[in-house]
Amino acid sequence: MKNELIHLNHISKSYGDKVVLDDLDLIIHENEFVTLLGPSGCGKTTTLRILAGFETPDSGSVIFDGKDITNLPPNKRQLNTVFQNYALFTHMSVAENIAFGLKIKKKPKSYIDDKIAYALKLVNLEGFEKRSVTTLSGGQQQRIAIARAIVNEPRVLLLDEPLGALDLKLRQDMQYELIRMKNELSITFIYVTHDQQEALTMSDNIVVMNQGYIQQMGTPEEIYNEPENAFVADFIGDSNLFPALFIKDNLISIDGTEFECVDTGFGQNKPVDIVIRPEDVKLVAKGEGTVTGVVTDVIFKGVHYEMCVDVKGREWVAHSTRSQTEGSEVDIRVHPFNIQVMNKPVSEDEEAIKTND
Questions:
Q1: What dihedral angle (degrees, nearest 10) is formed by the CA atoms of 32, 38, 41, 42?
Q2: Residues near 61 by Cβ (< 8 Å), separated by ≥ 6?
Q3: Looking at the DSSP assignment, which residues form a beta bridge with residue 67?
Q4: Mean pLDDT per 10-residue segment, the chain (357 residues)
C-alpha cells in the first residue's frame, strides 16, 4: 500500500462572499498521478494554489509527509508548479531557464550542468541548451517549463492546466509524455484540468469537484463506470441521464418501460436517476429489444456514429460503428450491467456534496 504523502485537512476558502472551497478533505499518496477535475469555478485551481503555498486557507491545514506546512512559504515546500502560461524568462536561453532555481540555491556549476543535461534528455530536447525560448513551439516551451521544475527534485509536481494552450494532436502527445515522465521520475503528480478525456487518459485517481466540494474520488474506471451522482455522470464522458423508478431490486422503469438492472438496496417504487453510456445503447431490429424508437439524427464522429433516437418523447443517444437510417424505427436493448442507478439528491446543496466517505 502506498504511503500517505499529502492531507488537505478540512480546507475552506472564501473570497468575499463567495465560498470557493467548503470543508474539502483529500488524501494523496506517494507516486500517484492525481487529477483535480471540474468546471471553471469549482475550486480545483484554488486547491492547487493552497497546496503550493500561494494561497492560505481560511480554515483547515495542509499536511505534507506528516508535517503541517499550512504557513510555510512556497520556496520552502518540496513541490514545484508548472503553470498554463509556462512563466518562462524570454530574455534567457533554455539552459538559463532550467538553471534558474538551482542558481538561486547556489549549486555548483558542474552540478547545474549535469542537471540541465538530464532534464533535457528526460523531456526529449537534448541539444536545445543555447536556444532562446522565444524560438520554441508551444509544446517545446511546455517541456522546458517541466524541465525547470524537475531539476529541483521536488517530491510533488503540480501542473495547472499545462496543456490548455496546445492544439489537440500536441496535447495528446504530451499526455503520453507526462505519463512516461511520471513513471521515470517516481514522484507524485497533481494535475488540474477541466478536460475529462485528459483526466481519464493520464490519472491513477481522479477527484471530481464542483461548487467547492468533492463530488467523487476514484480510478478512471470507477469514475466513468460507476458515477455516484448525476453531476459526475453528466460531466465525465457522454451519457444518457434519465429519471427512473426503482420498482424493486434488479428492476427499474424508464418512462413506463421496465428494464432489468443489477442494482439492489434502493427500496421499492422509489424515484432515482440512472445513467447509460451511449456505447452501451444497442440499436437492434424491431422486436429484438426492450423499447422502440425513431432515429432522428445520425452524426459521423470518426471512430463511431452518434445516433439520436426518440423514445416516447425522450432522446436516447447511441454510439456504434454501424449507422442507422435517419427516420427508421429501431429497438433499444441495454444489458442490465450497463444501467447505473443513483439516488436522487434531496436538495440542491446535496447535489454538490460527495456522497460516500
A1: -70
A2: 9, 10, 11, 68, 70
A3: 64
A4: 89 94 94 93 93 95 95 90 78 89 86 89 86 85 85 88 75 82 87 90 94 93 90 88 95 96 94 94 94 96 94 96 95 96 68 42
Question: For residue 273, what is the enclosing H or E element?
Answer: strand 270-276
Q: Which DSSP state fits 15?
A: E
Secondary structure letter of residue 344 according to DSSP: P
Task: Give dist(CA 287, CA 330) in Å, integer.
Answer: 9
Q: Which three cell numbers stand for residue 285?
A: 431490429
Q: Can you tell me the distance from the alpha carbon of 303 to that of 321, in angstroms, rounded to the nearest whole number? A: 7
Question: What pLDDT score does 346 carry?
Answer: 59
Cα–Cα separations (whole angstroms), residue 75 to 53, 99, 105: 8, 15, 10
Give yes or no for a contact between 81 and 158, defined as CB atoms under 8 angstroms apart: yes
Q: Which amino acid is at 282?
A: K
pTM: 0.82
- Assign residue 41 a region: left if phi > 0, alpha if psi is -120 to 50, beta otherwise? left
> Which residues make Cβ contacts (< 8 Å) with residue 106, sequence separation at least 6?
none
CB atoms within 10 A of CB 2: 11
For residue 77, report the phi and psi dihedrals to the nearest 5 degrees. Answer: -95, 150
CB distance 311 to 265 below 8 Å:
no
* Of 22, 84, 60, the residue nearest 210 (C-alpha): 22
Contacting residues for 214 by C-beta, under 8 A, at least 6 apart:
24, 25, 26, 207, 208, 354
Widest Cα–Cα separation across the chain = 78
Q: Which of 289, 275, 287 is nearest to 317 (CA)?
A: 275
How far apart (Å, rounded) are the C-alpha atoms in residues 111 and 59?
41
Cα–Cα distances in angstroms (integers) from residue 263 to residues 188, 229, 246, 274, 281, in the given order: 36, 14, 9, 11, 18
- Spell out the domains of the chain, with CATH numbers in brackets: 4-225 (3.40.50.300), 238-349 (2.40.50.140)
